[in-house]
Design brief:
heterodimer; A: 295 residues; mainly alpha; MetI-like fold; two-stranded antiparallel ribbon; 12 helices; 2 strands; globular; B: 336 residues; two-stranded antiparallel sheet; 13 helices; flat
């Protein structure tokens, strides 16, 4: 016969606290799931409604009858142009800014101003970026409505994404690595180029992927700066207008009547597959990095 | 080289990449002071110049963020300021109930847009804040290991869904559901746009709120648990009060996001230029109005300029929200 020391028996108060805690825990889990489940449901709806319309010819054929039929070849190509342009402009600037903030900047007013500017740049509504693009690139710099103007607008918009992602990966490289390199007599730039950047691993790649991801999905900034609803030929240079996947989706779901029911879902499915695949890659890189490096 | 304003105090002085044993430099300096030593070792060779150029280049990258935010303000202001100061009746603009820029004479009463924005953002926040805080507390304080990783990844992916896809969801999925469940004629309304925006803003609020919870020192939790508090008591009495500034910043940034969202709202709100009276009325927001009308407004016309005035209003409000959120977080950090 074992008797339990009364000291270790839960008092009614403790029991009540425990019950409350379990209740709250279950409730919060339910709330978290409530946030995640709609996302999965949406994905499910898109796959169920959109997958029957997907085929190789859907991906490469140009749109027909104003976009209500045919494929998404031209919009896909246009998105490629716009995204490549945005990347070419945003990546060098963003990485340079990240290197400055992580390697050179001291805690002074300039650094604080740059950080505030980045926060604000990330928070500016996309339609305000569109207005800026129209005012600055289309009219002031006389780019006209073109891929160049749209890419510039997208680049300004994705710049904070690149900076933040790259800065984080640079800051993850231990200080001791830099100190070891400096004490060998290397200059600051040699240290950055030979030690910090290689060891920041896929950090820049993550920044690149997130930038692409954002540029692919945006609609508002490009619809007035370079993307058009319908264009029958592929862009030849950066001064051409182009179709774009996101704007095409907006077009088929709001502007056109008598569109086959599945078409918006199919276009949305392609768009979301591209975006989620890119994001998934970025997450996988980050996880692998975290698993491999043990400093 | 001696007085470079950007040099980190902990950093090394720029030095030649390779030692030069053949150079006769240091030997006669055996009894010299530090200054002479430094001068003798100071090789301004190619590597040194390259270092200088690289430093200037990355500084340029850093300054570009300031340049762009300034340029955005200057360009939007320059397009709208003349009209805003000389032709626009601000009282009519802020309190006028009719937005009819294309009829003659045009009416620029932005109250329907402002009210529409407030209604939709309000509904979005009512939906997003409880969901996001619940999820943040669960992920930050209860979930462990694999479950926690998966929840975080799913929420990150939720944040990555493009706004035009959310618009399609509102148009094709939410619309029939709302019509069916509430028995209303119009499926594209404040409620629809609010739900969509709520789901869009929730991941951001979750991420920032979780960071705020993580910033509460572990020792606080340990101290409370040592006094016999249950985990929920620790969260409710210790963690949440301590994280309050960070949580308010999260809500503010969520509002900023919902407020500035364009395409999804344009598609899901029904875009009716009237002041909504219930959540089942269609409404129009400031952002959606710019997106809907910028294409048809001729460059330089009154209509074009008034849209830039709306843009300036948006820019000002989001700038204020972001600065306030930043200030709240920073103020907290400096006290800690």
């Amino acid at each position: 016969m074992t008797t339990i020391d009364p000291m270790f028996v839960a008092t009614p108060l403790e029991k009540r606290n425990h019950t409350i805690q379990q209740l709250v825990r279950t409730l919060l889990l339910a709330v978290a799931l409530l946030l995640v489940v709609p996302a999965l449901l949406i994905l499910g709806v898109l796959v169920v409604e959109g997958a029957p319309g997907l085929s190789w010819s859907f991906l490469v054929d140009p749109p027909r009858s104003n976009g209500a039929a045919g494929g998404i070849g031209l919009p896909l190509l246009g998105t490629l142009w716009l995204t490549a342009g945005a990347l070419l402009l945003a990546l060098p600037l963003g990485v340079a800014a990240a290197i400055y903030l992580s390697e050179y900047a001291r805690d002074n007013w300039l650094t604080r101003t740059i950080n505030v500017a980045i926060v604000n740049l990330a928070g500016v509504p996309s339609i305000v970026h569109a207005l800026f693009g129209v005012g600055a690139f289309v009219h002031f710099l006389h780019f006209g409505k073109s891929i160049l103007a749209a890419s510039c607008t997208l680049a300004v918009m994705t710049l904070p994404v690149v900076i933040v992602a790259t800065r984080e990966s640079l800051q993850a490289v231990p200080k001791a690595f830099r100190e070891a390199c400096w004490s060998m007599g290397a200059t600051r730039w040699q240290t950055i180029w030979r030690v910090v950047l290689p060891n920041s691993g896929s950090g820049i790649l993550t920044g690149l992927i997130l930038c692409v991801c954002r540029a692919v999905g945006e609609t508002a900034p490009i619809m007035f700066t370079g993307a058009v609803f319908l264009r029958s030929m592929a862009p030849q240079s950066v001064f051409d207008k182009t179709m774009a996947l996101s704007l095409h989706l907006f077009n088929v779901s709001t502007q056109l009547t008598d569109v086959p029911h599945h078409l918006p879902f199919s276009v949305a499915l392609v768009l979301i597959i591209v975006v989620l695949a890119l994001n998934g890659t970025a997450i996988a890189f980050r996880m692998r990095l975290r698993g491999r490096k043990k400093w | 080289m001696t007085s470079d304003p950007n040099k980190d105090s902990a950093g090394p002085p720029p030095k030649p990449a390779s030692p030069q044993p053949a150079s006769p430099g240091p030997l006669p300096l055996r009894h010299a002071g530090h200054h002479e030593w430094a001068t003798a070792l100071d090789h301004r060779d190619r590597t040194w110049w390259f270092d200088c150029i690289a430093r200037l280049a990355v500084l340029g990258g850093g300054l570009s963020a300031i340049l762009f935010i300034g340029a955005i303000f200057v360009f939007i202001a320059s397009q709208g300021i003349d009209f805003a100061l000389h032709h626009l009746n601000w009282l009519d603009f802020l309190f006028g109930k009719r937005w009819e820029p294309t009829v003659e004479p045009p009416e620029y009463g932005a109250l329907p847009l402002i009210m529409g924005t407030c209604w939709i953002t309000g509904v979005a926040m009512i939906i997003a804040v409880p969901l996001a805080f619940g999820a943040a507390i669960y992920i930050g304080e209860f979930a462990r290991g694999r479950q926690r990783e998966w929840l975080k990844i799913l929420i990150e992916l939720l944040a990555a869904i493009p706004s035009v896809v959310w618009g399609v969801i509102g148009l094709q999925v939410m619309k029939p559901i709302i019509q069916h469940v509430f028995g209303v004629q119009v499926g594209l309304n404040v409620l629809n746009a609010g739900i969509i925006l709520g789901l869009m803003a929730a991941p951001i609020i979750t991420t920032i709120a979780e960071d705020a919870l993580k910033a509460v020192p572990e020792t606080y939790r340990e101290a409370a648990e040592a006094l016999g508090a249950s985990r929920w008591q620790v969260i409710w009495k210790v963690v949440l009060p301590h994280a309050r500034p960070g949580l308010s910043a999260a809500v503010l940034l969520g509002i900023g996001r919902a407020f500035g969202e364009t395409i999804a709202v344009l598609m899901a709100s029904g875009h009716r230029l009237m002041i909504p009276e219930s959540v089942f009325d269609s409404a129009a927001t400031i952002t959606a109005t710019i997106a809907a009308e910028l294409g048809e407004a001729a460059h330089g016309s009154e209509h074009y300029q008034v849209l830039f005035v709306l843009g300036l209003l948006l820019f000002g409000i989001t700038f204020g929200i972001n600065l306030t959120a930043d200030w709240i977080v920073r103020g907290r950090r400096s006290r800690a």
